[in-house]
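Encode chain A's predicted structure.
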Amino acid sequence: MPVENGVVHPLVSVIIRSMDRPTLSKALDSIAAQTYPNIEIIIVNAFGKNHSALSTECGNHPIRIVNNQESLNRCQAANIGLHAASGDYLIFLDDDDWFLPHHLERLQQILSCNEAAIAAYAGIQCINEFGEEISRYAENFDPIQLRIENFIPIHAVLFKRKALDNGAHFDVALELCEDWDFWLQLAEMGDFKFVPEIGAVYRIQRGAGSGIRDNKVRTRQVMTAIYRKWISRWSDDTLWSVLEYARYHKTAIASERVRLKLEEVIADRDHQILALMNSTSWRITRPMRAISSLFKKIGASD
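Encoded structure for chain A:
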């Protein structure tokens, strides 16, 4: 285990499920640029027998390639990657996304200082095909919200090997949202620590990726399957917390509608006042209003 300036650096495994996209090279470059010194890269060939040739090195870090003659779905490739990884800490990176240089170091530091934590995650910047930021994932951890929907992209999270030792795996029955189901498993084993800074970039392209944005019906079916899988495992307290969360959300939406309506009324009133003040009649009667105001002041002083 490498030691640098008296600091021990456990091995971090970065797992890439490669579909042989041309963006793979940028993903690998972002790993080579990491400030954390002890990394192995596991590339699972999810594309199949015609995948492009790959190097066995990425900067100072070794690459281990798991080849397959047939294409793999996302969960199959993820489980193969987990099985092949040797790291004390593990993280996924899709072949069209990338890390910022400090990402692994910051997450590993947080996990090494928190025994009760099973995972740590950072904020994610989302960009479109033109490189423009369109949104961010950067929310504090909320276990109830996680049970309602996923808000943590897969390459945001570094997790401890004990998650695998405790049986965590990807459910091959899921076509989508497999990372959400995986986080739910990890959340049963320990805490998630949030690092409030952007650690990686998520490239969102129309018609590409997991299809979550492209097929709403399919996404709904998969999310419903996940709810059915987990709801029978949750305690009464957990179920009640989910219901309370939904009730609060409904109240918050109603309050927000009232606030927006109020702002609309105020804006309309201000617009009417401004229109009146700019009108011809308002300007013509200005001297009369001034005289009237003067008489009122005189009357008040008598």
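DSSP finds ten helices and twelve strands in the chain.
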